[in-house]
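FORM 7B: Structural annotation worksheet

SECTION A. Query
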Amino acid sequence: MNVRDSEVISGLLDKARYKLTEDEAKADIIIYNTCSVRQHAEEKVWSEIGRVSKCQSVKVSGEKIIGIVGCMANNYREAIFEKAPAVDFVVGTADIGKLPGILKEIEKHKGGMLEKKIYETDADFREDEIYHTGFHLDKEHAFVVISEGCENFCSYCVVPYVRGKLRSRDYKDIRKEIKGDIDAGITKVTLLGQNVNAYKYEDVNFVGLIDLVNSVKGLKEFSFVTSHPKDTSIELFKAMADADKLKKYLHLPIQSGSDRILKAMNRGYTRKFYLELVDKYRTIVPNGALTTDIIVGFPGERDMDFQDTFDLVKDVEFDAGFIFKYSIRPHTQALRIPDDVPKEEKERRHALILELQKKISRKKNAKNS
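SECTION B. Predicted structure
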């Protein structure tokens, strides 16, 4: 999602006649497009801002303008200016369409001190036009956002607090964007959403959207991420099997193999439900790839809970897995639970699951080669 947001920002600024550069030394403006899902990602941003601003302890004419956009903007809001005084503007996830205007406002003060910090995090939705600038980093593949926000409120997840309520884009605008990509020579796309399965605009749900996208002339291949198990259905699997242009790939985060931890995470499904879902997927979509996300060290995770997760990974044999150590996130319900799994134990569990998944992936790759 953040990769696509960075493309949107780049496209908006390109249309406003700003020139992009990969050479930090030549940049007059540095914009950090941020993620708040994990603490480590935020720490990297704070560190980078500190590095860039070391020689800018006092603002003077000609210095770089620094901005934070995205999840951290919504997570910390005006507190960013206190934590990082070098930052000049803060723009939230739904406010990125305002960036060209904000930079023009800053330019009015070029050659002198900024009179005030600029802070925009109040918008509830994005104007759809921002998705149609035609800017893509990859000239063969495009990301297409189909929905924004999330309302699942998993107890560990900050996304609903920084990206807002679920909002599905008009399927006509999605098709328009894909056709624009095809006109530009791009024939492969990935549909994006925090929970694509929850997509619904008027009478078109996600299964219906798959059919619509599959029928777009000139499109050669498409895929989607991410699916939430509780909203995943047999109808989706049948649509995946029938859509000839759809890549047979499903990213289905389990997060934990323990029913007790799944309940504490507010995931809305059980271990048994997930395993039955996997069986149905592999029956209906033969040879379909399956990947997952896992969090180890969630508050209250005991040895037996971790063993449940370990055993599930061993039994399911995912094609790939993204393994994370739990970290406290602001605003979330899990913040109320003592983070009682020691750092060393989180690292041990992380290493064990990671090594197990690597062995499984190697075995699958050897079998398919």
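SECTION C. Observations
The mean pLDDT is 93. Residues 34 and 262 are 28 Å apart (CA to CA).

SECTION D. Sign-off
Analyst initials: ____
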